[in-house]
Amino acid sequence: MKPIHGRDERATPSRLLLAVYLLVLLPLAVLAGSSAAQESSEAEVRTPVVLELFTSQGCSSCPPADALLREVGVEPDVIAISYHVDYWNRLGWEDPYSAPAWSQRQEEYVRALRGDTLYTPQIVVDGMRDLVGSDRRRLQEALRERRLVGKRVQPRVDVDWGAGEVQVDIASAAGLPRGLDLRVLITESAIDTKVSRGENARRHLRHDHVARSLETIADWQGEEANLRLPLGDDWQRDHLAVVVLVQQSKGRRIVGASRIPAVEARTRKTRR
């Protein structure tokens, strides 16, 4: 080996290992770290898949779909919403979580997806396709398909939970196309109901991600938005969440979504 700085440097195992690391392993480690960081960054901005279930406590076919939504809704890249429609109420049991607004939202999807009729249980995936809410195989196929989608809009949301209302602040977003609506929902989970009449008479039903309120800012062009949403006196505060959807006004495709649970928001504020 040639002398370095006038001294005869003999090769030793430790020096050889260091040379190999510097010449070969270190660049590979840096490349791997860069790739992992890129994948992590992309995962952070990828919009979750939004599942909207239209259901009713008066529908005997709905409990399996409610259970499937509860199971899939715990996955970190899924945002689940359960809308209780009101058109089953005339058949013996009035669903306490039903509302005409949820039936109207389903009607909008029927028109957008060129469906034939309203039915329950129905799941709409990212506002783009629908399927029977209890069909596990088709739902898993739809989730795999939508998880391959690249980056979309990721609304930046700050939530402040008060005693009787929640303050929702949505940061401005640049470069958005026209024809988008901003929808802000409050959902509630861990709801148990004893049904005394109708098709589910004498059953205890469990519901999660139940839509409790919805505010819409039509023709949203990415400007900052600030909303104050009232909370019902009987709503379980530890089981609430704010869901923000960015949705096409006409085609109804959901291009962005965020979900902030009440417990998570309070924990985050405590850590600051």
Brief account:
This protein is 29% helix and 31% strand. It has helices at residues 13-45, 62-72, 100-112, 136-147, 262-271, and strands at residues 49-55, 78-84, 122-125, 129-132, 157-161, 165-170, 180-188, 191-195, 203-207, 210-217, 225-230, 240-248, 254-261. A 4-stranded mixed beta sheet has the order 2-1-3-4, with helices on both faces. A 4-stranded antiparallel beta sheet has the order 10-7-12-13. Strands 5-6-11 form a 3-stranded antiparallel beta sheet.
Q: How would you describe this structure to a colleague?
A:
- The protein has 5 helices and 13 strands.
- The chain is 29% helix and 31% strand.
- With 272 residues, the chain is α+β, with helices and mostly antiparallel strands.
- A 4-stranded mixed sheet has the order 2-1-3-4, sandwiched between helices. The chain has a 4-stranded antiparallel sheet with strand order 10-7-12-13. A 3-stranded antiparallel sheet has the order 5-6-11.
Instruction: Supply Rg.
Output: 25 Å
Which residues form runs of ≥5 with pLDDT under 50? 1-11, 16-44, 267-272
Proportion in helices: 25-40%
Counted by DSSP, the helix tally is 5
Whole-number average pLDDT? Answer: 85
* Number of strand elements: 13
List the secondary-structure elements in sequence, H or E. Answer: HEHEHEEHEEEEEEEEEH
Class based on secondary structure composition and strand pairing? alpha+beta
